[in-house]
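Kindly inspect the following:
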Amino acid sequence: MVKIRMRRTGCKNHATYRIVAADERSPRDGKFLEILGWYDTQIKENNFQIDLEKVEKWMKNGAKPSATVASLIRRAKNPNLKPHHATPAKKAEKKA
C-alpha cells in the first residue's frame, strides 16, 4: 500500500521535510516513489508547498495520507485555515 507521508531532510536542529509517496513498508527516510512537495518547520508563514494534482492522482490510485500530510493538504486547498494545534491532555485535566 502507498502512503503519502513526510521524509526528513535538513540539518540536526533545522528539520525540513519532503512530502513523498512511498510504500508503507519503506523506512521514513528510505526509498520513495515520487516527491509531492516540501514542509519547513522553521518558517512561520508559507512554510509548505504541495502539488495538489499529483496528490489527487495518488489518492485516486489508493494512497492514504498521514495525519500531518492530510492537515497540510486541507490547508493547501483552503489557505484561510489556520494550523490546528491539539490541546495537550494534561492541560485539559488541570482545568477540570
